[in-house]
Amino acid sequence: MKELIKERGKYLTKNLVPGTQVYGEKIVRMRGEEYRQWNPWRSKIGAALKKGLNDLPIKENTNILYLGSATGTTVSHLSDIITKGKIYCVEISEKSMQKLLEITDERKNIYPILKSANAIEEYSFVKEVEIIVQDVAQKNQTEIFIKNVDAYLKNKGIGLLALKTKSISQSKSYNQIVDEELSKLKQKYKIKQVIDLTPYEKEHAFIVIEKQ
Amino acid sequence: MELREQLIKESKEKITKAFSKDDVYLIKGINIIDEMVEIYNRMVEHCRDWYNYYFPEMNSYIKNNDLFCEIVEEICEKENYTKENLKKIKQLEQKDIEALEKKAKESIGGNCEKEMLKQIQEFAKNALKIKKQKNELQEKIEKEIEKKLPNFTYLAKPNIATKMIQEAGSIERLAKMPSSTIQILGAEKALFSHLIKGTKPPKHGFLVNHPLVRESRNEKGKISRIVAGKLSLLVKEDYYKIKDTNEKEIKKENNIESAKKMEENIIKKINTMKKNSDKKEKKEANKSIRFRR
């Protein structure tokens, strides 16, 4: 797939809007096309890729539900790849959404939803998607993930959860928290991969599940 | 309308609404004030260093930063340090004026090209502007807080009230806090050290500077707890009243009756606590005397 390529250890996505930049990333001209460098220090999926993420079953017409899109750093790369798909971006903060709207005008595959990821009924117009990505800093992030996966992920779909352990508990250890949250997910889904995002993110785990 | 266009329109309307709440401007203003003080202090340090090459004796003689910048702005060149000119600066006493005039004549500082000296003068001027804006901003913020949360600000005092709102992040969040959180707002480091490592928990955060807490010697923890309890009630009364009633109604009645009542009750409690602890001390003292016999 030429929308996502790896060159000299760095991941690049083909720029959907050539001549523009989203977050100060490096622009690379290659094979006659313009590519944007996926910065692993700014994007959790970028970090997961560098640390050996195996399954990223993204194609041109994949539909994605992204919970916690913030100002759109990771979203922009996913939007580069799914040229014929849709990415529904749920974000609770008005300040972050204002920045996201600045790239939404030109990227027609971004659907912005200014709501809480916990209130799943409020975006029920979202049709079933193939991939759900979550990156929210809440104490009950696993519960929010499960709610959304049950409601909106197709069978055999992939869920990517960026687990911020410090939001869940400050006194328990990283391993303890990861084990506890994994046990909640194991009951319902198949755990495909668990990645530690050090050094790109501290105390963050990246969990890949498959809905049966 | 197509789904995507509708979503974009909805988001834009929500953003405009959220950015129209005066809360967000207030909180950002509070965040800036401390930094403005730091910026001013650093500018003054640089200005003193810079001017020191030209007139070191003035730099050493004038200890007050505001006064130093004012003199550099108004007088600047050594030839201008005359009694006439120096009289314009209000904070200078007669002895200071005479001392400065003499030091300017006998200064061992070097010469400085006029254009460069002008730069130093502009720098001092800008430092004073920042200090002035910081004071104006602080006044404006305290006025706003008193208007929005009259009872809370009356009991907490404007200084502490500002810090608490900043730490809480928004007035709504502060109103939802339990009194135990309000008690230790500002002591986060000690709190997390207690939770993680098991050290002693903090008794008070910003409340340590509250006049009622400062007065007492042994009862600081108890008094902070009592004050925090009343504060959490007052902030809820203030905040939820604003939500339900008209803005015009609030402007008429800026009443702080509840706060005054609660302050009276707290002071009564503190006095009874003092009496009881005095009685206890007397008893202990008598016991030890009997034992010694």
Q: In words, what does this structure look like?
A:
The complex is a heterodimer of chains A (212) and B (293). Chain A has 212 residues and is an alpha/beta fold. Helix content of chain A is 26%, strand content 29%. The model of chain A has no long low-confidence stretch (mean pLDDT 93). In chain B, helix 14 runs antiparallel to helix 16. By secondary structure, chain B is an all-alpha fold. The model of chain B has no long low-confidence stretch (mean pLDDT 90). Chain B contains 16 helices and no strands.
Strands, helices and their partners?
The complex is a heterodimer of chains A (212) and B (293).
Chain A: E1 4-7, E2 10-14, E3 27-30, E4 33-37, H1 44-50, E5 64-67, H2 73-81, E6 87-90, H3 94-104, E7 110-113, E8 129-134, H4 141-152, E9 153-164, H5 165-168, H6 174-186, E10 190-196, E11 204-210
Parallel strand pairs in A: 5-6, 5-8, 6-7, 8-9
Antiparallel strand pairs in A: 1-2, 2-4, 3-4, 9-11, 10-11
Chain B: H1 3-18, H2 22-52, H3 56-61, H4 65-74, H5 83-87, H6 94-106, H7 114-148, H8 150-156, H9 158-168, H10 171-176, H11 179-184, H12 188-197, H13 211-215, H14 220-244, H15 247-252, H16 257-292
Strand fraction of chain B: under 5%
Number of strands of chain B: 0
Spatial ordering of strands, largest sheet of chain A: 7-6-5-8-9-11-10
Beta-strand content of chain A: 25-35%
The description of the largest β-sheet of chain B is: none
What is the count of helical runs of chain A?
Answer: 6
Task: Assign an overall shape of chain A.
Answer: globular
Mean pLDDT of chain A: 93
Spans of chain B with pLDDT under 50 lasting ≥5 residues?
none
What's the quaternary structure here?
A: heterodimer
Q: Could you give the order of the helices and strands of chain B?
A: HHHHHHHHHHHHHHHH
Alpha-carbon Rg of chain B, integer? 27 Å
Give the N-to-C terminal Cα separation of chain B: 97 Å
Mean pLDDT over the full residue set of chain B: 90
- Sequence of secondary-structure elements of chain A: EEEEHEHEHEEHEHHEE
